[in-house]
Amino acid sequence: MEEIKRVIFAAGSGTSRAPMAAAIMKQMTEGKDIDVLARGVVVLFPEPMNQKTEAVLISNGIAPDNFAAEQLTAADIVPGTLILTMDEAQRVKVIEEIEGADEDNTFVLSTYVGDEIEVVDPYGASLQTYGLCFEVLKKSIEKLLAKLETDDKGGHHE
């Protein structure tokens, strides 16, 4: 696989897990040459970030940028793009519906980094659940960055 230049986190309406994951990764990759985007799999209109997502980011020292949910489109996919969804159903939908998304560049985040379970959707749950979602995403993204670094140094996929 070519060097990853863009990572797109794609999930549901694009207002909770995707922007949370993108914000965490942006903070961890500051100063690195990688483009990190949050997109929704089904975005009917540009909603703002979920308030609990925003609160959890702020409490973890991440200032969310001026955010509005955007639909994932073929235009988002450039050479070197890695698309990471939060569950298998989203992965299948993205591959089926978005031109340029395929089995080689679209994965479930947890599977891609070798985690046992998918990132649970905190929507409608307590602030504490959003906090747990943040912790899970943070650990997965740390693994993701380690994997991308290894791959860039000539590591190979099975």
From TrEMBL:
Stored Gene3D superfamilies: 3.40.50.2300
Domain Phosphotyrosine protein phosphatase I stretches: 5-147
Protein name: Phosphotyrosine protein phosphatase
Organism name: Roseburia lenta
